[in-house]
Amino acid sequence: MYPPIEPYQTGTLKVSDIHTLYYEISGNKEGTPVVFLHGGPGGGVGESDRRFFNPEKYKIILYDQRGAGKSTPSACLEENTTWDLVKDTEKLREELQVEKWHVFGGSWGSTLSLAYAQSHPDRVKSLTLRGIFTLRKSELAFFYQNGASHLFPEAWEEYVAPIPESERHDMVLAYHAQLNAVDDETRLKAAKAWSKWEMATSKLYVDPQHIAEADKDDFANAFARIENHYFINSGFMRDGQLLDKQEIDKIRHIPCIVVQGRYDVVCPATTAHALKKVWPELTLNIIPDAGHSSREPGTTKKLVEATDSFADL
């Protein structure tokens, strides 16, 4: 990754009567623009996210999606859908007077990147995607119901603990009730358990420091509530929509590099494989010793190589 840098501009953008987004810009003011679409949904951006891009060549634009990070109101589910976020990304492009930009996104960020590109293909110079996630029912079932639990049984026990046994046949639905409970204690306990499950399974080598992120009240509340809200609503799209040939045809001309951890259990490689089958023109890099996180060495290396390769487009 490139050395740490600070933004030279920060700002807010009011995108609805309810929501105001936080954004920041770093790198080269005259560089080629790139927008970073964070994961979750609800994850927010961090300082290290700037470091995937050569600051001498890129104008690096990061923003917190609705309800996430420094955007307000925190954890708000109202007027918060995939298509609201697609519109927000386009509004930010217009606000910053960017004609076309590179788009970078991992996990949920790959979902939003595909949805945005398919909605505005004429505004995207390239796509750098990691841990492909398309919100199909089968993907959600693998991670939240019956799949990853076979690989991380200890973490799974902690994840199911807040849910009565009679409700465990649909964990996303059961968590939905608790994450929207009236009392703060129930809601926060559920939020931390939901978040901890993802943090505990995100890396090939379990990282206690990463898991500890789930103990932060504000982060867990936004991350869990927004994720669950999107998942209970199937991402506000039809099952498999982002992989439909007619949708891929809209973006087939855009250079795309995908970086996928072989042992990613959050967003398993089968989805990246499905995307490659319908879009053979993209470049798929399978990292043999990586899980889900963008911070694993092999994944980080390939992501930086990808952004370097697009820097002069």
From TrEMBL:
Show the InterPro entries listed in the entry: AB_hydrolase_1, AB_hydrolase_fold, Peptidase_S33, Pro_iminopeptidase
What Pfam families does this protein's entry cite?
Answer: Abhydrolase_1
Give EC number(s), comma-separated: 3.4.11.5
- Gene3D superfamilies per UniProt: alpha/beta hydrolase
Q: Which UniProt keywords apply?
A: Aminopeptidase, Cytoplasm, Hydrolase, Protease
* Compartments, record wording: Cytoplasm
Q: What is this protein called?
A: Proline iminopeptidase
Species of provenance: Athelia psychrophila
